[in-house]
Amino acid sequence: MKPIHRIAIVDDDDGVRQSLSSLVRALGHEVRTYPSATAFLADDGDAPDCLLTDIQMPQMDGDQLQAELLARGCTYPMIFMTGFPNEALRARVMARGARAFLVKPVDGDAMARCLGEALGIHTSV
User: Fold this and answer.
1) Residue 116, exposed/middle/buried by CB under 10 A (0-12, 13-18, 19+)?
2) Which residues contact 47 (CB under 8 A, 6 or more apart)?
3) Global pTM?
């Protein structure tokens, strides 16, 4: 049986959170969703096994979230998504250890593949 991993999804778009949550659950993982980076940071629960986060969000963007998590010593894999890609941002988050930088709308197969690689497992949708 495939291991269950805890996946955190941070995105200010409710529809994106719901669709990603459905996909990740279908892959057999536990999901926690957050409408903002600050809501994620305020959660005192167990750390996720992987973080899926949007880049463009109000208050604190995904780039700032990554910097804060790294400053706190968090080492779990992070996958970034954005509808507004730019090379400088992609290079920055990847240089700091991001596992993927995906352009929205994210294809379900691509997300499953990236998530599986980040978790060290093989996935299929």
Assistant:
1) middle
2) 6, 74, 76
3) 0.94
The range of the structural domain enclosing residue 27 comes to 6-119
Residue 124 lies in a domain: no
Residue 1 lies in a domain: no
Q: What is the pLDDT along the chain (125 residues), one digit of tens a residue?
A: 566 899 999 999 999 999 999 999 999 999 999 999 999 999 999 999 999 999 999 999 999 999 999 999 999 999 999 999 999 999 999 999 999 999 999 999 999 999 999 999 864 44
Number of domains in the chain: 1
Domain contains 125: no
